[in-house]
Design goal:
Shape of chain A: globular
Pfam family, one (chains A, B): HxlR
Radius of gyration of chain A: 19 Å
CATH topology of chain A: Arc Repressor Mutant, subunit A
CATH superfamily of chain A: Winged helix-like DNA-binding domain superfamily/Winged helix DNA-binding domain
Distance between the termini of chain A: 50 Å
Order of helices and strands of chain A: HHHHEEHHEEEE
Strand content of chain A: 15-25%
Keywords (chains A, B): DNA-binding, Transcription, Transcription regulation
Mean pLDDT of chain A: 88
Number of domains of chain A: 1
Oligomer: homodimer
Low-confidence stretches of chain A: 1-14
Organism (chains A, B): Herbiconiux daphne
CATH class of chain A: Mainly Alpha
Protein name (chains A, B): Helix-turn-helix transcriptional regulator
Chain lengths: 167, 167
DNA sequence: GCGTCTAAATTGGAAATTCCAAGTCAGAAG
DNA sequence: CTTCTGACTTGGAATTTCCAATTTAGACGC
């Protein structure tokens, strides 16, 4: 039970309305285990027990994270029934969740590039159709790749104070 | 004080040797505040006091994170001297740290796409040369963009067990 | 010397989060 | 009605984060 705070209207798990996109995003996927759950979801895992075994995360935390990701619209809860068993829940990436492929992909790519594991890669990104290797990159509005060091973050309309773009 | 462990040869802060690239990456940038420090670094902030004021993070945590990011090779510690002041430290993205632009960019893009803030974007990604807007995307080995839902993660050589690629 | 100033930490203790082991719940099978 | 099993809860310990107060180390004036 989640300690029913007295008073406190409490919307249905409202997301943070932080100005910064990164803060809002990390409020959803930034806690311990969340991104690993999502990684596992991209590997086709869907059940509580699969996540539990693969991650080794505490079951109460896993439960809380799955609920949070469902509330945030990243995962979707479905029912399944194994023959001879009662109905249970499974968790599937939503459209929004599949959108995190770029986040997961860039984390994987950074790890491969700057902190490679001597034994090789556990996970490789390929085209679903022809299996050719893919990478994550910046592209301009015409779909042409742009070198990483040519991209800069500049203040948008919601910025409270300007900053000097790096480089 | 950081409890000087007796003995313990101590390599230069050995990273986790986890098989999974995401685990290795999150071991470096997955703790609270780390990615926001890096975001700020991309906004040109370099000093302890700048990070402190901009983030509102506790100073002990900020100190610990900066040290960890320096040890991990993401940030680099430099000395600067304000006229009439003693020498102090500033923190700058290394090559490895600048490589995190894709991670930060994909987090920003996901926030914009799936959890937009009513007031607009705080941060926009543009080409440093001609200021045209950029996005983060999957590209094949010839530099052609590939639709997000066409990318899948498949087991690499270091995978301990195979999995069904999603979709 | 001595006291003051300031940015960058460090420290002690409270609060929140995570971990772990054990327990509950709900249907299915016997 | 007893057992089994996957999906959670629960209580309490361990760890991490938070907060306020303090320390540190040079620069400055005296």
């Amino acid at each position: 039970m989640v300690t029913t705070k007295q008073a406190e209207p409490r919307e249905p798990a409202s997301q943070s309305e932080a100005r910064c996109q990164i803060v809002r995003t990390l409020d959803i996927i930034g806690e311990k285990w969340s991104l690993l759950i999502i990684r596992d979801a991209f590997r086709g895992r869907t059940r509580f027990s699969e996540f539990r075994e693969s991650l080794g995360a505490p079951s109460d935390i896993l439960s809380a994270r799955l609920t949070k990701l469902v509330d945030a619209g990243v995962l979707e809860k479905r029912a399944y029934r194994e023959p001879g068993s009662r109905e249970r829940s499974s968790y599937h990436l939503t459209e929004s969740g599949r959108g995190l492929a770029l986040v997961v992909g860039s984390l994987v790519q950074w790890g491969d590039t700057y902190n490679p594991y001597s034994g090789g890669k556990t996970s490789v990104l390929v085209d679903a159709v022809d299996q050719r290797p893919l990478s994550v990159a910046f592209v301009d509005d015409e779909g042409h790749p742009v070198a990483t060091d040519e991209a800069v973050f500049v203040p948008g309309p919601a910025a409270r104070e300007p900053w000097e773009p790096l480089r």
